Amino acid sequence: MALLKANKDLISAGLKEFSVLLNQQVFNDPLISEEDMVTVVEDWMNFYINYYRQQVTGEPQERDKALQELRQELNTLANPFLAKYRDFLKSHELPSHPPPSS
């Protein structure tokens, strides 16, 4: 079943807004754990899903499909963001042992 044009437009708008949100994030002190950042991103995604749940149109099956696609696409955007955050955390780890001197 194809998505209704109105739902496609809503998904597109939601993805643009979510992308802007992710791009606005600045990583600095105090750092939060990777697990906590995953929780934050999942909360943001749930916020977007709940917001757009009220706006999607069509029969219940069409609306469910649109929200499922929105969730998948938000996840697709979130994964590189979380990888970037993971790399950021690794770059700020203190070495457990000083490097051997030569």
TrEMBL record:
GO molecular function: hemoglobin binding
One biological process term in Gene Ontology: protein stabilization
Compartments in which it is found: Cytoplasm
Keywords noted in UniProt: Chaperone, Cytoplasm
InterPro entries hit by this protein: A_Hb_stabilising_prot, AHSP_sf
Record keyword Methyltransferase present: no
Family: Belongs to the AHSP family.
Name by which UniProt lists this protein: Alpha-hemoglobin-stabilizing protein
Lineage: Eukaryota, Metazoa, Chordata, Craniata, Vertebrata
